[in-house]
Amino acid sequence: MADAAVDEGNSQTGDGRTAVPEPADRAAAPRGGPEHWDRLVDVLVVGTGAAALTAAITAADEGLDVLMVESTKLWGGTTSISGGGLWMPNNPLMKQAGVQDSQENALTYMEEVIADVGPASSRERKLAFLRTVPDVVTFLGGLGVQWMRSKDYPDYYPDRPGGMVGRSLEVKAFDTKLLGPWFKQSRPAASGIPAPLATDDVWELSRAWSTPSGFIRGARFVFRTLGGLARGKRLYGLGGALASSLMYIVRNQQTPVWLSAPLVDLIQDDDGTVLGAVVRRHGRDVRIRARRGVVLGAGGFARNAQWREKYQGLEKEYSSAPEGDLGQAIDIVAARGGALALMDDAWWGPTCVGPKGEVTFTLAERSMPFSLVVDAAGSRFLNESESYVDFGHHMLANNRKVPGDPAWLVFDARHARRYLFNALLQGRREWKKQGLLLQDESLTGLAEKMGVPPAALQASVERFNGFAETGIDEDFHRGDTVYDNYYSDPRVKPNPNLGPLEKGPFSAVRLYPGDLGTKGGLLTDADARVLREDGSVMSGLYAAGNTTASVMGRTYPGAGATIASAVVFGYRAARHAAAAPAAGTASEGQAAALPSAHSTGSGGTSAEPLEPAAG
């Protein structure tokens, strides 16, 4: 079905990343009428993350001829190495469990939290998202996706009107052996977690060594893992389960997927309608006619250093997104008049950088008691337990006032002994050796190693310890909400998020403003159609996921808001494309003679075999 060979047309930058095609390269792409097409499909889907996979599945279910193309040699996108959650208000599983929610309640929450930051987060798009949630959950469930509720996960602002607990969904652990050799060419196989871990496990596993509920959750996870192995299964959870479940459906629908096949350009008629695209494959430009439309689910630009500096002012990015997240699709459409929005924003969050340069998103570690975060001046500047997108925004804003990257997570011996610290699981020795994990028996000594004023750090800790005693964080209200308490230690009283830093040795780890991907890009309408700067629709062109400006605006309403919107608008794009007339003016008589996604032809345009080539 796909070829794993690295595309000869990809150029490489000095750091080994694939370079974004320049506008001049795209202008050189051949133009012409239907006699120049190499391939005929109904829908061309660009990307292999949640948005693209959902669009491809939906289009194929409509009886359309679909082709998927992926710029890198691995399928799965950012979705496959994420937590895999989807924030799906008023979903069918909530109703089955007797949990009361409604479209009206969820809209109140979205309007309150997201507000209106422009057309991307318009009321119309919010309503389109909410109205589609039940349909897409039911649709994918009917095709075999095994949903389960993250019933304990709160919205990120549960105290705001319409906020509640338990709106997020995830996929049950998936046996990746069902994908056969095709799984070897996936991103989960390359860098995922080969265990049946669930998002709803993490909050208690982080304290598996310190609380009875954490120990029980840990034991269940171990038994689940051993049970899978005993049954001869290769179970993956989190984003690997979601991406693999969706790809399994794509495979069963026999939709071809080309790897190492980046989008080079779009092809439009004289009226601007998108007729198809140019895809570079085996060093050759292949012109693909897409009669019903092109759907872009190609990710954002998290790993494009030039764009991160241009749009976000970052000298260096610390992203968890894959190396192929370079913004090619966004660039191509923008050059043809596509409107952009929210390019200065991302799905921010604090990260640690390890001995080999690996980036690890930090979540529970910063929220647990007996720890605090300070800046380069040794002062607290935020609620350490707040949502990661707020944490990232506050880091960036504080860095402008108090120059000095990074911030520091400071914790005492009880935190180090009791709670899971994901970044340090591979061994603390190398972290200490490279000066990435600093330790000292005194706060003064630790401050000197950190390079912050000792008196300032001491004062920050003393004030924080006073809040821990009273249970009230007078400065930043840490521990005031159900979301704050989600990652906490219920044994610590009176506030489970606050614990005094008193027991040496004291430790410090650097925190950098990282992200799970960018959230700005092409502006789309309620049906995922790409819009021009003047607000008109670019007929024949759709986009979803991080290729677009998010309906979630500049915030993050709940766990999985990024993947949820990707899935919903990927679904809406395909449904709209299926209902729309064939785009453009190409002769159907001539087009009928072209090889389709499932036909056999010559000259490199034949359908892919159902299994990847050996090697």
Give a quick rundown of the structure.
The chain is 32% helix and 17% strand. The strands form 5 sheets. Strands 1, 2, 8, 9, 10, 11, 20 and 21 form an 8-stranded mixed β-sheet that branches. With 615 residues, it is of the alpha+beta class.
C-alpha geometry: globular
Overall helicity: 25-40%
Helix vs. strand class: alpha+beta
Which band does the percent of strand residues land in? 15-25%
Low-pLDDT windows of residues: 1-32, 585-590, 600-615
Q: How many angstroms does the end-to-end distance come to? A: 14 Å
Please report the number of helical segments. Answer: 20
What would you say this structure looks like, in words?
This protein is an alpha+beta fold and 615 residues long. It contains 20 helices and 21 strands. Strands 1, 2, 8, 9, 10, 11, 20 and 21 form an eight-stranded mixed beta sheet that branches. Helix 4 crosses helix 5 and helix 7 crosses helix 8. The chain is globular and about 75 Å long. It starts with 22 loop residues before the first helix and ends in a 24-residue tail after the last helix.
Features:
single chain; 615 residues; alpha+beta; 8-stranded mixed beta sheet; 6-stranded antiparallel beta sheet; 20 helices; 21 strands; 32% helix; globular; disordered N terminus; disordered C terminus
